[in-house]
Amino acid sequence: MTSSSLRLIPDAINRFGARVHAVDGHRWNDSTPCTEWTVRDLVNHLVSEHLWVPHLLAGESLEQVGDRYDGDMVGADPARAWDEAAERSLAAWKGADLSGTARFSFGEAPLTMYADQMLVDLTIHEWDLARGCGQPEWLDPAAVDHSLAYARANAERVAGLGIFAAPVPTTSTDPAVQLLSLLGRAV
């Protein structure tokens, strides 16, 4: 599963970036399916997440990184902030050795799990961004399939982290709808 994650992450980063660049200037304060976040807040979250990537893949601890990526990381130009974070993240993923572990806010975990989680995060938030600013909501089928397999296999653990809303029941057979519903999105 992880080799798929590592292979899929660069395209997921690029797709998210394309959506960031497609945000109309007046839509940055629009709401998203992440009820506490505007479009700008959502992009800020992803910028922060991707600024962490090089540090965690290089074996740095949470304490070593500290709070340098807390708060507003996008400033006056969210697209530029995304581009810079994405460039650093892509470089780190391309050279990544995922055989080790890292210490995360939820505890120590394999870097392979981190790769899976980052792909899920990129995929889900790509949809959130699209929905929040009126873009087409299409998601890459390979990223959806991989993310859905991960989400299903880790549903209890993910629910316990409290980072996603409760699952939304669905009868849909569409894998994207199943993924979004499992991670608390009403489609």
UniProtKB/TrEMBL annotation:
Transmembrane segments: none
InterPro entries registered for this protein in UniProt: CHP03086, DinB/YfiT-like, Maleyloyr_isom, MDMPI_metal-binding
SUPFAM superfamilies (UniProt xref): DinB/YfiT-like putative metalloenzymes
Coiled-coil segments on the chain, per record: none
Domain called Mycothiol-dependent maleylpyruvate isomerase metal-binding: residue spans: 11-130
Listed name of the protein: TIGR03086 family protein
